[in-house]
Design goal:
Elements lengths: L12 H14 L3 H29 L6 H35 L6 H18 L1
Keywords: Membrane, Transmembrane, Transmembrane helix
């Protein structure tokens, strides 16, 4: 009987979203990559924060409103950063995939994700 392999979770869920997006965008055509970037940017930058703000408004009369506002405010900022980073990753891969069809290796994808996170923080 073989041993089960347990994979250790690497990093935060936000980092995993960006890593998954780089892996998917690396394999797509440039048009599909732009479409994916527009959808993910819209979802993470506008839709999810608007939903969280709606939750915040519904909790306004709660005695824990200040604590809930603090937690949701941090989440809204995190989702907006994820939206910017995912948008930058998809734009990068759309331009790259327009000019070449070679798939990027793991070190290149990791560097792209790191640079996208770095630029997202400076653009926020």
């Amino acid at each position: 009987m073989g041993r089960k392999r347990y994979h250790r979770r690497r990093g935060s869920p936000a980092g995993q979203i960006i890593r998954d997006t780089t892996q998917i965008a690396n394999r797509m055509t440039w048009k599909a990559c732009l479409l994916l970037g527009a959808i993910l940017f819209s979802a993470f930058y506008w839709l999810i924060p608007a939903w969280l703000d709606g939750l915040l408004v519904s909790q306004a009369s709660s005695p824990f409103a200040a604590a809930v506002e603090s937690v949701i405010g941090r989440r809204v900022r995190m989702f907006r950063l994820i939206g910017i980073a995912v948008g930058l990753v998809c734009v990068f891969f759309a331009v790259r995939n327009y000019y070449t069809r070679q798939h990027m290796g793991r070190p290149g994808r990791n560097a792209t994700g790191f640079l996208a996170r770095l630029f997202a923080r400076s653009l926020d």
